[in-house]
C-alpha cells in the first residue's frame, strides 16, 4: 500500500509543477498576446503567437 501512496503523491506534485509552469513569463502586447519564447517551446507550453487575454 505504501507504493500506491508514493505514486499518488508524485502525481500530485507533477500536476502542480506543470500547472504552475503553464503560466510562463513574457510580455504581452496590446492584443494580450505574444510570441512563444524558445524555452517555452522546448517545454511544450506553447507554439508561436498566442493570446493570454481574451479580447473584450
Ligand atoms: Zn504566452
Write structural notes for this entry.
With 56 residues, this protein is mainly alpha-helical. The longest helix is centred in the first third of the chain and has 21 residues. 48% of the residues lie in helices and 11% in strands. It has a domain of 30 residues. The protein has a two-stranded antiparallel sheet with strand order 1-2. The chain binds zinc ion (ZN).
State the end-to-end CA separation: 51 Å
Count of separate DSSP helical elements: 2
Average pLDDT rating = 79
Strand order of the largest sheet: 1-2
Kindly state the number of beta strands: 2
Radius of gyration: 16 Å
Helix content percent band: 40-55%
- The share of residues in extended strands comes to 5-15%
Unreliable spans: none
Query: What class do helices, strands and sheet pairing give?
Result: mainly alpha
Q: Which ligands does the model contain, each kind named once?
A: zinc ion
Largest sheet: 2 strands, antiparallel
Order of helices and strands: HEHE
- C-alpha geometry: elongated
Signal peptide: 1-23
Keywords: Signal
